[in-house]
């Protein structure tokens, strides 16, 4: 460039000087000499015969001593022939670069007389330079989301030659995805641009290799190529995909916290951050309390002991999200497998407060329920009564059972029962527990009073004091309370009904029989009473017993024989003896 600028400015100076010097020189130099040679001529090549063209005679040449005044000697003059010869390499491109008109001005100095001739040597371009790309390899990153029609500028190739030898056109290797246009031709830049013709899909083809050829217009044509590698960058057009939409897992209950439950896996066909997946729980607040999720690996571990009885299954959703924000979800169904870790329980829900001894067989006397939180066989419960008692279990619905009477009850014989019910499940091994209930049997007035003797005989000595107790009867009744509370009365006698109360009375409570008057053997020797013992049940039950009263004689009269003597032991005053014992 500096070279050219120098040449040019030198040319202008000479042009200014020329009219000034001209009158000094011969008038033969009216037109300027212009030679035209191709660049890169061999040293010694003849440009032209300067002597002849300047109108000098060959025989004068030695005296005129022609020489070239220039800083850089591209040329020399053959002093014998006057030929202008190439003496150095002449590269048009380094002399004139892209200037299509490359002219080297020369000052030819002649002596005797001193004279200066200006001549020009035009250097013509030859196609000695191929086009040349600044880079042999071009890498373009194009996102697969880019729409067809989008253009991508490429660096122009450079051809040092000019005119037809310069860069003329480009050619792109075949690609269904790309075409080439050349823009800004007016500015001489010949800038090629790639045009996307068809959408790219990284997952289908992640890179494309194109070859761009630049061609000049020389003969022969010289070319140059560059490789264009298109790296299709990911558009995160693929969401993560789980290996399964639904994962079903069975898990034993009571596993220690930290047990690995499952590992979900999602993959993403994208690349880089767009394929980086993080996992997270998508559902339910309590899931996070029960399970831990490794956000990187997708592994799920238990956090708390898993209790089947709290929940027999868990459903959760897990989201996989890639770094580009696309997400997918999968569902996890965790079935918890029951273990026999719960003992069955018996709970009495109601116990009859009034089980009476007259209860019919089959009467319901208690209701109870069994509970076993386990499921399946672990929760299947059977019940039995431990004791030998007149009760049996009748299953009802929903683990409810009835305890019913299974035979006659007799309070007087067994007033209470302890009934123990044992519930056993069918787990392996089985678990069981028992519960006891005390059943009190209510009384029924099912026993009449019973006199201790069916009949009584008493001997009473006459002249007894009035109010004296002359006998006592007693009856017992095994029933309870009023049902067993006996009261006594006289219900019949062989005395005159009106006279009865003036002769005897009985204490209702004690059964003591009192004489109401002094008996007189002479008037009344014997009488019989029917005593009744009656309980206070409702209805009341009663029993009769007879009491025979024999009034004994005392020597209270002057002897007079009116009646035969009664017996050898007639002297007994207050003596009761059973009738059977009487002779
Ligand atoms: C029933 O059980 C209670 C308490 O265990 C005991 O005191 C009572 O004597 C038992 N009754 C019978 C009839 O076994
Ligand atoms: C008891 O005696 C009375 C009076 O003779 C009679 O009416 C009643 O039926 C007797 N009771 C029984 C249980 O024999």
UniProtKB/TrEMBL annotation:
Bilayer topology term: Single-pass membrane protein
Gene Ontology biological process: cell adhesion; homophilic cell adhesion via plasma membrane adhesion molecules
Main location: membrane
Keyword Cell cycle: no
A GO cellular-component term linked to this record: plasma membrane
Subcellular location: Membrane
SUPFAM superfamilies in alphabetical order: Cadherin-like (SSF49313)
Entry keyword set: Calcium, Cell adhesion, Glycoprotein, Membrane, Repeat, Signal, Transmembrane, Transmembrane helix
Cross-referenced InterPro entries: Cadherin-like_dom, Cadherin-like_sf, Cadherin_CS, Cadherin_N, Protocadherin/Cadherin-CA
SMART domains referenced in this protein's UniProt entry, alphabetically: CA
Signal peptide: 1-30
Positions of the Cadherin domain: 69-133, 134-242, 243-346, 347-451, 452-561
Keyword Mitochondrion in record: no
Entry's Gene Ontology molecular function annotations: calcium ion binding; cell adhesion molecule binding
Pfam families: Cadherin, Cadherin_2
Domain of life of the organism encoding this protein: Eukaryota
Biological function: Potential calcium-dependent cell-adhesion protein. May be involved in the establishment and maintenance of specific neuronal connections in the brain.
Name of the protein in its database record: Cadherin domain-containing protein
Organism of this sequence: Equus caballus
